[in-house]
Amino acid sequence: MAHDHHDHDHDHEQEPPSDIALRVKALESLLVEKGIVDPAALDAIVDHFETKVGPRNGARVVAKAWTDPNYLERLRADATAAIAELDLTGRQGEHMVAVENAPGVHNLVVCTLCSCYPWPVLGLPPVWYKSPPYRSRAVIDPRGVLAEFGTELPEDTEIRVWDSTAEIRYLVIPERPAGTEGLGEADLAAMVTRDGMIGTTLL
């Protein structure tokens, strides 16, 4: 049974993302049905970004930045070139800027105009990233949006919101967790999540 979109039930804050996901699936089905998209090609594209790319690529960048001061400097100077050093290039990742979380500073990435996103380092964008509520509220009420992801920041923490465009895409470098000095890059990379590199979570 279809939901009435004008019936706002405030006790079910989680419904909009699932509703959007259903609409995306419906659109995909329609495109396939109309012969506009070959389902095999669609599956191959999705599989590539979900399993072959995924956020593991971005996690490698973060882990290297945490462990190699020279790499971090190159990342600060020219993130596009530094990321390319790890053979992580491709469409939607041509113009990258790394923004670093630090004590008292937290970065959050959004794309208010559409849903520009660094596919080569983060894989497929999450459904919520493309949703109008996230795109508008991340700018207007970033602290409230972060709280919805379970990220409660001290009142004196500065939240910097970065608006991605067709020209520039941002990658958040989370703070390295305390007590991880003895870990290698692979173990560190395993700790980094996609949401941490968008900035909706700390890690």
Could you characterize the architecture of this molecule?
The protein contains eleven helices and four strands; from the N terminus they run H-H-H-H-H-E-E-H-H-H-H-E-E-H-H. The protein has 203 residues and is mostly helical. The longest helix has 19 residues, at 15-33. The chain starts with 14 loop residues before the first helix and ends in a 5-residue tail after the last helix.
Provide a compact summary of the structure:
This protein is mainly alpha-helical.
Average of pLDDT: 83
Main sheet strand line-up: 1-4
Low-confidence runs of at least 5 consecutive residues: 1-17
Oligomer: single chain
Strand content: 5-15%
Largest sheet: 2 strands, parallel
- The number of helices is 11
What overall geometry do the principal axes of the alpha carbons give?
globular
Distance between the termini: 38 Å
What is the strand tally? 4
Evaluate the radius of gyration: 18 Å
Fraction of residues in helix = 40-55%
